[in-house]
Structure formats: structure tokens, C-alpha cells
User: Fold these one by one.
Assistant:
Number 1:
Amino acid sequence: MEQMKGGEQEKEQAKGLECRRCGCRHFYVTHTLQLPDGRIKRRRVCRHCGTPIVTFEVPLGYVSENARK
Ligand SMILES: [Zn+2]
């Protein structure tokens, strides 16, 4: 059974993040890395199917340096 209704018991930090394989929204954080540019990289693993997802958290006031060229 993949359908879990009314299951908002856990507050996930990354809202709207979904497993691309099973659509599950529950992840374990297996790795957290503070990047030199201020962002936080988190490696998550889906609780259902184990699909890994890497997310980058951007702090408030962060200015992207990707567009300086
Ligand atoms: Zn999944």
C-alpha cells in the first residue's frame, strides 16, 4: 500500500519534495554538507524505496554566483 492518507504527522524541512520514483515525501537525511558558498547540501534517501535525492538549501539573502560570467 503506497497510499497513506492524512499522514502529516512529520514535518519535513523541504516542503514539496517528492521521491521521483514512488512519490513518497518522507526522507531520511543521510548526509549534510556545508558548502563554501553558504549553501547546505543534504543527501536524502526515500524511506519507501531508497531512492537517493540530493537537495541544496539556499539561505535567505543568498546571491547566486552562477551568473557572474
Ligand atoms: Zn521512493
Note: The longest strand covers residues 27-34.
Number 2:
Amino acid sequence: MKRILNLLTITFALLSQLFFAQESQTNEGYCIVKSARFNNYITNVQFANINNYSDLGTNGYSDFTEHKANIDSGKQYTIKVDTKWNHWSYNSIQVWIDWNADANFDDSERVFNKIGSGSISGIVSVPENTRIGVTRMRVRYNYYEELGPCESKRNVRGETEDYLIEVEHPKRPRSIFDASSTHVYSNREFVRFADRSMNNPTSWRWEFEGGIPSVSTDQNPLVRYVQSGSYSVKLIVENEYGSNEITYVGYIKVNIRAHVNPPGSTPTAITEVTDTGMGRKSAAAQNVVVTPNPSTNGIFTFAFKEVKENISFKVFNDSGLEVSSLNSFSGTRAILSLPNLQPGLYTVQVTTSNSADTVRLAIQ
Ligand SMILES: [Ca+2]
Ligand SMILES: [Ca+2]
């Protein structure tokens, strides 16, 4: 009997050696701790933008470094941890953040420590001048005992979870933007994107999926879209304290009306012409004179009596269907170039900030 007991003791010792031998394992240089008894474990961690629900990790350890909390130096954040058996008394929660990113959780890096029952929560203060960048947070639950960040002990209930932390400067910019319009119906419309970022960025990089241009470093760029679809917009902003980016997925909806530019046709161009001083101011009583009319090549010159602001054209065919348009420019002359239109009669509505004319055009 004694011999059997001895054997059992030896077997147990071997098994425990096996179990604890694994504790020398590391994860990115960080110690991995394991717990021998698992009947209570961490089920939820909430911290900054992390809200992670979980079961029991293998051997009481979970690598959740795919979850990253973004925090600002000098600010305070609430942490809240739940366990499977929340109602037990003496549930101990400890949290460390490796502020100096040396892969060690020093005593001074324990940022939270509480024993109790129910959801265990409190405040984590981020030091004012702590290192900016990515590091690791360890959340440890044990029953009745406070073990160190790497400490293992047999027969102690517990679980350990690791997360990533990104410490950022509170004055780094935050990328925000909007647009003059998010629905585009013509390949001649321009969308004006407006930077609304916080904390005064000093440089910008925009990426416009499906846009012309597709990239811009202007603060408030003008962009055109020529193909129907749903397009994302990304803005990366930067200042001396860091950078930030945001992508609005499917932000711009483009639905180019098919009759403006039938598939395969060259887009109909309306060309703005600088005022040459040749406007026929005394030639006609009308607001606008069109020459030649009829035209054999679809090109018409519009001459206004005086400099006009916000000149817009809309061209309709004889069935009343809009076939071309252009918005907003100023001057006394403009060339309307409609080389793709079939011979026939067209109606052009010409509006300016103080006038509206309807002109019949003929293409021969
Ligand atoms: Ca867990
Ligand atoms: Ca450290």
C-alpha cells in the first residue's frame, strides 16, 4: 500500500512538473501563466473600446491581442470585468499595462486591483508622459488570492487574458469629414469633400475609390465620379502628435443617368471659354446670342450681353429628355460642344444668377 502511495506521489509530482514546465512559455516575450482549476473564469472585459466576451481559455490563458484599446495619455478609463460565477465573494481582478513595452509587467505597472463579488469595475489612469505606442495589457482573475502577473500556483482557480493597448497623444488629430453631396447623378457633378477633423491636422491624404482624382492631398478636394456604383472614401490626417485615419465605406452613391452618356459614347463636352471681351454687347437685345445655329458639327458659341455668374446649361432633345448639362461658371462667352448628338432640334435652358433663357438649337 505504501508503495502504491509512493507511486501515486511520484506520478503526481511528474504531472505537476509537466504542467508547470509549460509556464516558461512566452508569447511575444511575455510570460504565459496557467491556472490549474478552472471552475471560474473571465467572461467579459470592458476597457476603452474593448468589450470582449469569452469562455475559458486553454489552460486558463487567452491571447486576445487581436483586440486593441485606444487610450490617450493623461486620461482615465473605466475597466469592468465579469466572471462566470460573479456572485462569489473574494473574486480577485488585477490588471497590468506594460507602459514601457519591455515585455515585463512590473509592480509599478499594476493599474487595477480589486477583490469582491459581482461585476468588478474601477478606473485606470494613464500616466501623463507615458510612452506613445502599442503595448500589452494583462487581465488576471484568481479566486481568493492575488497572484503576480507571471505567477502560477497549483489549485488556484483563475484565468488570464492578454490584450493590446495603443497609447496615443491627446492632441493627435481625429479624422472626420463630410461631402457637399453623397449622391451623384451626373459625371459632370463635382463633390466637394470637407475636412472636419479635430485637433488641427497639418496634412491630409484622401483616397477616393472610383473618383477622379483617386488621391488628393488637398484639405478640401473636389472630386468627380464617372461610373455608377457605391464608393468608399478614406481620409488620413496628421499633425506633430500623430496621425489618424477613417474610411467611410460606400459613402458616395453614384447613379449616372444612362441617357446623358450612352455606353460607349464619348462624354459630351461643354467647354468654358475665358471672357475675351468680344461679347456682342450691342448686337442684340436678347440676353444671349448663339452662333452658328444651325450647326453642322454640334458646336455652338453662346455670347452673353454682360458677364454672367453661375451659368448653367441643360440640353433636352425633342422628346424632352435631358441629354447634357453643365453647372456653374461665369464669363461672357461659352462654347457648347455636342458632337455626339444626332442631327435634330434641341432645347437648351440657359440659367444664370439673374436670367433664364430657352434657346432652340438645330444640328444638321
Ligand atoms: Ca475568458
Ligand atoms: Ca514593463
Note: Residues 41-42, 54-57, 62, 159, 161 surround calcium ion (ligand 1) (CB under 6 Å).
